[in-house]
Description:
Order of helices and strands: HH
Number of strands: 0
Shape: rod-shaped
Structural class: mainly alpha
Strand content: under 5%
Largest sheet: none
Distance between the termini: 47 Å
Number of helices: 2
Amino acid sequence: NITPVKAEVENEEITSTLDHLVQILQGSPPPWLRKALQQDQKHNFEAAFDDEFEETEEEVLV
């Protein structure tokens, strides 16, 4: 998913906007962004976990 970032002023350079975003991500992001980042991490973890078990199937005789 891509979310557009609106510049605070019309003549603002993209580098300053990106620098500001990096500072936010390194510090304390707003709750909505923190939640979105956590959901993405959870999804990535679950996908890796599922892949691991799909590859380790074995036959068990009882």
